[in-house]
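Q: I'm writing a short explainer about N-acetyltransferase domain-containing protein for a general audience and would like to include a description of its predicted shape. Could you first generate the structure from this sequence?
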Amino acid sequence: MTRVTMDTSSFSSFTPREPQTDRPPRDPAPPTPFISFIKPQGQLWNYNRHKTHDDQPGNIPKAFLDAMSVREKVYVEEQGVALENEFDSDDHRSCHWVIYASVLTTILPAILDPRTGRLVRPRVTRTTSLPIGTLRLVPFPHSAHPRNGGIYLNGLLTNVGDPVRPRSSETVQALQPQEIQGGNRRNSLYIRDFPTTFHNGQEPYVKLGRLAVLKEYRNKGIAGQLVRAAITWMQTNYTIFNPSPSVLGFDRLGMDVTGQLPKWRGLFCIHAQEEAVKVWERYGFKVDEKMGKWWEEGIPHVGMWLRVPVGKGGHTVA
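A: Of course. Here's the predicted structure. Afterward I'll give you a sentence or two in plain language.
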């Protein structure tokens, strides 16, 4: 059974248990996965992206360090992404999920009497929590959709991309934050982009990404547990990222912006590695042909979308 926790600052509830003994000796029990949820973390401001997860300041939440340990294994060590490009500005404002396996480790082996075969000392074991997978969810707003044929390093376009989709003056204007009617304050959460197959260029969406599972735990349903956990959480908390007029100060200005502020209506996006398209298709995501293909850190990517029901009666994932 999967255990879900809501630890956002420490991970004391998952510290290793005290050594225990068992008899007779037996093989370690299979790992039992459980998931930790991490809400957006303001204290990540001093995370040093030039250093590994185990060389960070003491105020970084342990669960986030665990997420980075998996990302470093998968993206930095396996796929060759530069360490300094793995952590980015979206990590601060994102929700993260980390999945752990409870692994039984032998500390001291059992000792048998060589003459009688009787147990002299039982085996001593300890159960530890090993981070084996992670996923993040980035709320809106987002930067413009990547350019077809674009080459991106650390989120920055390094070439001109495909001339088939040039940035016309109309497109550039569409990418600017839209001004709220009735005043001169701009709402930076309401950004227009060029339309694609599944996105009209304006509807707010959340973005899943940084899905990573350690090599030895792949093809065991771990990625699916993470994706379903994130989708279900977002369906249940579907208004959590919608901006509040009072928080933005429109009520103090006497402005009625009802219906003008962005509202999430169940749309998910991913920038999927091309070789992982079939993985995401299992969860209902569809490739957006109009977005084309681009490269992030030297890896080809495509856009994929999923719409889920939200609101009353929309809290379950098929």
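A: For your explainer, you could say: The first strand starts at residue 4 and ends at 5.
Q: Perfect, that's easy to follow.
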